[in-house]
Design goal:
The chain has 2 domains: 184 residues, 3-Layer(aba) Sandwich (Rossmann fold); 86 residues, Orthogonal Bundle (DNA polymerase, domain 1), CATH 1.10.150.170. About 2% of the residues have low confidence. Helix 10 packs parallel to helix 11. It is globular and about 60 Å long. Helix content is 39%, strand content 15%. It has a 7-stranded mixed sheet with strand order 3-2-1-4-5-7-6, sandwiched between helices. It has 299 residues and is α/β, with parallel strands linked by helices.
C-alpha cells in the first residue's frame, strides 16, 4: 500500500519558498530547533522536502489514512526522530508545543483517488465508502440512506455547488438502499448522470463530479475540520510563525482567504494564491486546481 502513495507533492517549490523564513531559521539551515505541523501528511512528500531544507527542524505529521502513514513512515525514515507520525485528524489535534509553522494540503490525494476500493472516484467501480479513515465513521452509502431527500439535496448543493441537486437527491432516495446493496461508485455515477440532459452528460467534467465531491466532504466533515484549523492554528504559532494552506476548490479557498483577511492574529503574505507553473501542471495534472495561501502570526 505504501507504494501506491508514491506521488508528487503539489506546489513543492512554492511551499519551500513560503517556509524559507521560519522563525529562528532565517538562513534555511536552521539556527535553532523548531516544530512544524503537517496537518495532512499523505505520503510525506511535503514533509520530506521541509525536513531536508531545514536540518534542525522537527515535524509532526498527521493523517487518518493508515496507508498514507505507512508510506510516509518509509519516506521519512532517513530523518529519524525529527519526524513524528500520528494517526489523527487535525480537527481533533492540539500540538504539544508552540509551532514555527503549520501546513495543510487539503482534499483527497491522487493515490486515494486511484485506489478503487476507497470509493472516492467513479473511474473504476468500487464500494461507496469515501472515508479518509476506512475504519471509522459513516460511509457515503450509509449517509445517502440516512438523510431525508431535502437534507441530501441541500448537502449536494452546498458542498458540490450542484444546480441539479434536488433532482439528484430525489433519484438517490428513490433507489435506496445503497448500503449493503452491492452497488458501486459506478452505479452511483450512472444514477447521477441520468439526472442530466443528454447533451450535458458528455462534457469536460463528468456530471457526477460535484455530487461525489459533496458526499466526500460530508463523510469526512472536511469543511468543519478546516474551519477548526483556521480558528485554532494562529494560537498554535510562535510570533512570526507561518500558516500555509493548499486548497483545491472554491469552498475551501474562500474560507482560507476570508480567515487570512479578517483574523487580527494573522498577516496575509499572499494577496493572490500561488498556483502551479506550466511545467508542474504538465508533470502533475492534479496541481492545476491547487491554490496556496500563506499568512504569518503577528506578535
Amino acid at each position: 500500500m505504501a507504494v501506491s502513495f508514491a506521488h508528487l507533492p503539489v506546489l513543492a517549490d512554492p511551499v519551500l519558498e513560503a517556509f524559507a523564513g521560519l522563525p529562528g531559521q532565517p538562513s534555511g539551515a536552521g539556527e535553532g530547533p523548531g516544530l512544524l505541523l503537517d496537518c495532512t501528511l499523505g505520503g510525506g512528500g511535503h514533509s520530506a522536502l521541509l525536513l531536508a531544507a531545514h536540518p534542525r527542524l522537527r515535524l509532526i505529521g498527521l493523517d487518518r489514512d493508515p496507508a498514507a502513514r505507512a508510506a510516509a513512515a518509509e519516506r521519512l525514515a532517513p530523518f529519524g526522530d525529527r519526524a513524528m507520525i500520528q494517526a489523527a485528524n487535525f480537527a481533533d489535534f492540539t500540538p504539544p508545543a508552540p509551532l514555527v509553522g503549520v501546513l495543510a494540503d487539503l482534499g483527497v490525494s491522487s493515490p486515494q483517488l486511484d485506489e478503487p476500493t476507497r470509493g472516492f472516484s467513479f473511474r473504476a467501480p468500487g464500494p461507496l465508502d469515501m472515508r479518509m479513515d476506512p475504519q471509522r465513521g459513516e460511509t457515503a452509502a450509509e449517509l445517502i440512506d440516512r438523510l431525508g431527500e431535502s437534507e441530501l439535496a441541500d448537502l449536494i448543493h452546498s458542498y458540490g455547488e450542484e444546480r441539479l441537486s434536488r433532482r439528484i437527491a430525489r433519484r438517490l432516495v428513490a433507489e435506496r438502499p445503497w448500503a449493503g446493496s452491492g452497488r458501486s461508485t459506478a452505479d452511483l455515477a450512472y444514477a447521477v448522470a441520468g439526472c442530466f440532459p443528454p447533451k450535458a452528460r458528455h462534457g469536460r467534467i463528468h456530471p457526477a463530479t460535484r455530487t461525489f465531491q459533496a458526499l466526500r466532504i460530508a463523510v469526512n466533515d472536511e469543511l468543519g475540520a478546516l474551519d477548526h484549523l483556521l480558528a485554532e492554528a494562529p494560537d498554535w504559532l510562535v510570533p512570526g510563525g507561518l500558516l500555509a494552506v493548499i486548497s483545491f476548490h472554491s469552498l475551501e479557498d474562500r474560507r482560507v482567504k476570508t480567515a487570512f483577511l479578517s483574523d487580527p492574529r494573522l498577516e496575509r503574505l499572499t494577496r493572490k494564491p500561488l498556483v502551479a507553473s506550466e511545467e508542474e501542471e504538465q508533470a502533475n495534472p492534479r496541481s492545476r486546481s491547487a491554490k496556496l495561501r500563506v499568512a504569518r502570526r503577528v506578535a
